[in-house]
């Protein structure tokens, strides 16, 4: 269970000032440990994780310990017994061990414990129930380190109980399998997810969407989505997709060109929706206004790869839709096509160099010169803009005005 000096703590701790917090907790008879993602990701060789800490001191005891050692605290999650400790202007979240929701007391008066194994038993997956102290000693109550090494993602204890406690754990199971899984999913855990998938209907759409988007950008997204579709995990909110091959093409392109993955772009590629379906997907997944705008723009307009060698076409496309749209749609279309020799990075560089011109005429110019009725200003201006674009932005203000004089 305890693996002595198993972890190189310097891979977690970048700011040694955090050890002041460990000293403060120990000076008051408590223990402080890194937990969850911070330990899991370091053991898996990943970077960019958030620091999560847990202590067997109650929030009040933790605050007192920090005050005695000159550390500032802020309330960040009192409902969940989480205290914020300020270290070099950064707030570290420290959770106090609780006896669990089964307590007879109300949520406003949680009961605390110093039983680390009990805290571990209430976590979702074995790989998330691994702790480490400041010396690199690892405390592993459910063989999480072994499961992580072997790519086994499974629930702690009875999978049904874990899922019933928080149905969103079904999505978390697939997300962590997509990141760390090797081979087929743990059958017992997968069976529990499939048999209880209807519990996801009680989870907020926003939570499901966020978990799904995290899955989209993982290294094993295609294999994981295939399993989810085969078992109709999200059939109440998303239709099946026959575009997994295109999604795999996109993943290869992203990796080959060292581009940043984009969950929304992958959602679009899964369905290649028309405007109606794009509207429907935006509604079903409660997309943000910006996400919906991007999805609809991809559905309404295209970027023709066969015309990408034309500087005139590129200038017009960037003027109409912006460089980022052109990049996204070019990448999407490339993933959908069988083109193997397309110079994507060269296209990106050209798009970035294009300076968007400004229409040399305004509605005020039309009204000032009595060239149209006020009610027709917008329509006339749009007509002139199209002629200006068709001229490759060469028509002057005077030439445009002459067209309606």
If you had to describe this structure to a student in words, what would you say it looks like?
Helix 9 packs across helix 12, helix 12 (263-271) crosses helix 16 and helix 16 packs antiparallel against helix 17 (344-353). This protein is of the alpha+beta class and 405 residues long. The model is unreliable at 102-107 (pLDDT under 50). It has helices spanning 19-27, 37-43, 59-68, 116-121, 144-150, 159-165, 169-180, 187-195, 205-216, 221-230, 244-256, 263-271, 275-284, 289-300, 311-321, 323-336, 344-353, 363-368, 377-390, 397-402, and strands spanning 2-3, 32-35, 52-55, 72-77, 82-87, 90-96, 130-132, 138-140. The N and C termini lie far apart (86 Å). It folds into 4 domains: 1-144, Beta Polymerase, domain 2, CATH 3.30.460; 151-239, cca-adding enzyme, domain 2 (Orthogonal Bundle); 241-356, no CATH class; 363-402, no CATH class.
Order of helices and strands: EHEHEHEEEHEEHHHHHHHHHHHHHHHH
Largest sheet: 8 strands, mixed
CATH topology of the largest domain: Beta Polymerase, domain 2
CA-based gyration radius: 28 Å
Q: Return the average pLDDT rounded to an integer.
A: 92
- Can you tell me the number of structural domains? 4
CATH architecture verdict of the largest domain: 2-Layer Sandwich
Strand content: 5-15%
Helix content: 40-55%
Alpha-beta classification: alpha+beta
Separation of termini? 86 Å
Number of strands: 8
Q: Would you identify the regions where 5 or more consecutive residues have pLDDT less than 50?
A: 102-107
